[in-house]
Sequence to fold (249 residues):
Amino acid sequence: MQIEQLYQDYKNMVFNLALQYLQNLEDAEEVTQDVFVQVYFKLDQFRQESKLSTWIYKICVNQCLDFIKAKKAKKRSAQFISIFENQNNDLPFIDFNHPGISLENKESVQRIFNCINELKENQKTVIILSKIEKLNNKEIAEIMNISTKAVESLLFRSKQILENKLKETE
Amino acid sequence: MTYNPFEEITPVKLEKNLLPDIMLKVKKEQKKRELRNTISSLAIIIFVITLNFVVLLQNQDQPVQSWLTENQTILHTYE
Fold:
């Protein structure tokens, strides 16, 4: 299958998932580009053991997590430099710019995303895939390379932690 | 009915055409991979040449060594 066709078929899926992870339009666009570059080079490795969409989801999740790590590292080094230059560098890690949220709900949803961002990588992934992307546990298990049972317990625990965090911020 | 905050997040349609940028990144990555392959091939060639050179030098030393031990034996017998 040609990359142009894959892009047309999955661009919105990839873009939306990246948006849920990064909550920033520009960052999501950049990650979407990187995901399709990866798809282009790894397409011959796709063994059709899962659905193509699941495989692309997996690439997207990894790309988002890598992007977040890189951004955090960049921010840490900027903070380190600012100590020597006496600059105030208290910029938030995520510049919230999510086009999928209406202005009236922005504040409440941003609060939820702030709490989601504090979760561990696998907890964040399971919440996003299950609650926002509405994938079933079997698909999530394939994406995360874990069993369906493990997804169930991870989801249960992640929801509990998220609820506690939300209560704390109330 | 309970309030589900996740329902507030609606799917977004990607308006911007990212395909030209993707193809540009693909070309860049291809060049990077080609360069990486060339460098690793060159490294292998240099390693093989160096190894051959070392083996050649060792082989050159061997007659001298055998000549030395031969003379040492003669010297020992004279002593």
In short: The mean pLDDT of chain B is 84. Chain B is about 75% helix and 0% strand.
